[in-house]
Amino acid sequence: MSEVKKPVFQPNPQFAATARIKNMDEYLALQKMAEEDYEGFWDKFAKEKIDWIKPYTQVLDESDTPFCKWFVNGKLNVTHQCIDRHLATRKDKAAIIFEGDRGDKQTITYLELSHSVNKFANLLKNDFGVKKGDRVVIYMPMIPEAAYAMLACARIGAIHSIVFGGFSSEALKDRIEDADAKVVITADGAFRKGKPYMLKSVVDEALSQKSPVQKVLVVQRNNEEITWIAGRDYSYNELIKNQSNECEAEVMDSEDPLFLLYTSGSTGKPKGVQHNTAGYILWAQMTMEWVFDVKENDIYWCTADIGWITGHTYIVYGPLAMGATTVMFEGVPTYPDAGRPWKMVEEYKINQFYTAPTAIRVLHKTGENEPAKYDLSSLKVLGTVGEPIDPPAWKWYYEAVGGSKCAIVDTYWQTETGGHIISPLPGATPMKPGCATFPLPGIMGEILDPQTGQKVGLGESGYMCITRPWPAMIRGVWGDPQRFVKAYFGDIKKEGKAVYFTGDGAHYDEDGYITITGRTDDVINVSGHRLGTAEVEAACAKHPNVAEVAVVGKPHALKGEGIFAYIMMKDEVPFGEEIEMAKEINKVIIQEIGNFATCDDIVFVPGLPKTRSGKIMRRILRSIAKGEAITQDISTLEDPSIVATIEAKVKG
Ligand code: WT7
Q1: Cα–Cα nearest to 161, from 306, 343, 319, 5
Q2: Is the CB of 261 inside a 6 Å radius of any atom of ligand 1?
Q3: Does residue 385 have its Cβ closer than 6 Å to ligand 1?
Q4: How far apart are the C-alpha atoms of 303 and 350, rounded to whole Å?
Q5: Section 634-651 average pLDDT
Q6: Residues 6 or more apart whose Cβ sits within 8 Å of residue 571
Q7: Lowest-confidence range among 185-189, 441-445, 630-634?
Q8: Residue 479 confidence (pLDDT)
Q9: pLDDT at res. 4
Q10: Which residue has a Cα nearest atom 5 of ligand 1?
């Protein structure tokens, strides 16, 4: 396949001089070290980075593969790694800088963080009876108390499961039930674009029927009126007053679960991705150091929401593990205008800025000249995550935001990988727009041919796999070990051994650079939010008049992918009422999943293209949605004429 050769951008020599990994030779030496002595590589970093309560006796136990154990018998506590061990040298250093939607500000030092987390932990333990191993659901806005809540769970060994605040009550209820959570931590609500919005009412709705939840803790943020249920709901602001600043950290085993985070797959309900203690925190810290190269006095800002993995690893755990200052922002990047992020960069002298391509595209489109109005000279590293970044967005980010001097780190990873797995290193890797470049040291990332399991050659495409377990990898799907094996180790075998498959397609260019080309399964990526088409279909089908539905992704200029639904109704939609009906269906999706999952296009069709065995031919539907010519053989369809009918409907 011939393609246009991509331009190469060299790292800024001024920043490279002091980077943790300074050049490609250093990168290659680390990668070689991992290849030659895999366990020795991880042993070195685990000893160097983690403050163990009790050392481990074995680096890696693969006897029950694909279930594996890292740092066997080691004892530690993640909050000790993230807080206590810094107090000797960093107690007055800002751990968290918070900025609210409406511009209110708060700086939390490491000592203050320690007190807040310990008080919170005492509250959960003493007032709520939360014990090691209990599941606690966190449904919170982007406020410091959300980070305290996560760390308080980690302090006492409870397993947190954060549900993104954009999820509906139904989605929240499903996740609460699947995890069998006994406590929910929430807030009255928060602020968005200057106005209050509510969360507590969503929790009330989620708990309105039989529920495993016994107690709800409510943080007051926007002070709007909410309903209180006596004996179930408690005010954080009241209960926290009586707690002690001291709380002993629970001694955790390396492989004790740290958190669950639900994510979408190609089939069935979202799965509870389980991450455990030692391997996760080690990799969170190592990737923070290598990929963002944060220095002692730097200010680092990741714009994600803590409801997604990026917020877990790169707002809370990673930055705090390395003792950095992490900025936490409640608002949206375009309020009050598209200069907001750049205003904050100027004001806080941000050195590393990390966001998603969808945000970059929106900021580019709505505020192309905004960066020029602010002093952005503090910036050194610009990160992107969540979906492939298109070269025009990359170029604007590099030039207009980064002043053509910053490294762009296009970080490729997933909820399941715990941290980055493929990314440029800011001092070392020559960059190409749209390329995640090379696997990080210690990550055995390879593009394999799905049929043969062999590594594909330069210029070739295949499936993005990881051929050895790594410390921060997913440890299981909550309550469903078989699903874990089937979902990640079912498809591809290398030399007869099942390897981890990410679900993404990828390509090596002529220089061996990796470009991620997108999902090969029925997962779509809407504004960096991962959704299963099956999930959206199940939501649509809740509408009483929907007979059958098929959902596909369609390229979208700002969101990356938009959602396109083909719906067959039980009773035909009367002429002229299609728009109203589409709105009704989107309303059902908002109830079942949340606002971010609504369909951009809904087309009512008299039937769906199915094979004689009843399988919906999604590839045909994808082509029609994109307006592409149908190249697939349709003669094997039960009713080939349906394709032309659907095409006419879509064009009409
Ligand atoms: C999926 C994972 C990783 C945190 C946010 C999303 C896509 C992620 C990139 C990138 C191209 C990317 C993949 C992946 N993805 N980063 N830099 N380039 N694609 O986490 O919700 O688990 O989604 O996001 O398709 O499988 P997630």
Answers
A1: 306
A2: no
A3: yes
A4: 12
A5: 93
A6: 545
A7: 630-634
A8: 97
A9: 63
A10: 386
Instruction: Inform me whether the pLDDT recorded for 2 exceeds 50.
Output: no
d(CA 556, CA 553): 9
Contact 188, 223 (CB under 8 A): yes
Instruction: Tell the residue nearest (CA) to atom 2 of ligand 1.
Output: 414
Query: Given this model, what pLDDT does residue 1 score?
Result: 42
Three-state secondary structure call for residue 147:
helix
Q: Nearest C-alpha to atom 8 of ligand 1 is from which residue? A: 386
Atom of ligand 1 nearest to the CA of 413: 3
Give the angle 33-36-39 at the CA atoms, nearest 5°. Answer: 80
The answer, yes or no, to whether any atom of ligand 1 lies below 6 A from the CB of 500, is: no
DSSP, collapsed to helix, strand or coil, labels residue 43 as helix
Asked whether 388 lines ligand 1 (CB < 6 A), one says yes
In this structure, CATH architecture of domain 106-244: 3-Layer(aba) Sandwich (3.40)
What is the CA(269)–ligand 1 centre distance, in A? 19
Classify burial at 89, counting beta carbons within 10 Å of its beta carbon; exposed 0-12, middle 13-18, buried 19 or more.
Answer: exposed
Closest residue to atom 1 of ligand 1, CA basis? 414
What is the whole-number distance in angstroms between the Cα of residue 445 and the centre of ligand 1? 15
Atom of ligand 1 nearest to the CA of 529: 21
Which atom belonging to ligand 1 lies closest to the Cα atom of 410? 17
Give the pLDDT confidence of 118-142 residue by residue, as tens digits.
Answer: 999 999 999 999 999 999 999 999 9
Q: What pLDDT, in 10s, does the model give residues 453-495? A: 999 999 999 999 999 999 999 999 999 999 999 999 988 999 9
Cβ of 309 closer than 6 Å to ligand 1, yes or no, is yes
Greater model confidence, 604 or 1 = 604
- The Å distance, Cα 386 to ligand 1 centre, comes to 4
Atom of ligand 1 nearest to the CA of 502: 26
pLDDT exceeds cutoff 80 at 646: yes
Determine whether the shortest distance from the Cβ of 114 to ligand 1 is under 6 A. no
What predicted TM-score, i.e. pTM, was given to this entire model?
A: 0.96
Q: For residue 211, with 0-12 CB atoms within 10 Å meaning exposed, 13-18 middle and 19 or more buried, which class applies?
A: middle
Q: 652 pLDDT band (50/70/90 cuts)?
A: confident
The Cα–Cα gap between 445 and 434 comes to: 18
Residue boundaries of the structural domains of the chain: 106-244, 527-651
Nearest ligand 1 atom, CA 309: 4
Pick the CATH number of 527-651 from 3.40.50.150, 3.90.1570.10, 3.30.300.30, 3.30.160.140: 3.30.300.30
- Determine whether the shortest distance from the Cβ of 122 to ligand 1 is under 6 A: no
The reply to whether ligand 1 has any atom less than 6 angstroms from the CB of 410 is yes
Mean pLDDT (the chain, rounded): 96
Task: Render pLDDT for 538-574 as a digit per residue (tens, 0 to 9).
Answer: 999 999 999 999 999 999 999 999 999 999 999 999 9
**Residue 1, Cβ neighbours under 10 Å: how many?**
6
Tell me which amino acid residue 182 is: K
519 Cβ inside 6 Å of ligand 1: yes
Ligand 1 centroid to residue 515 C-alpha, Å: 12
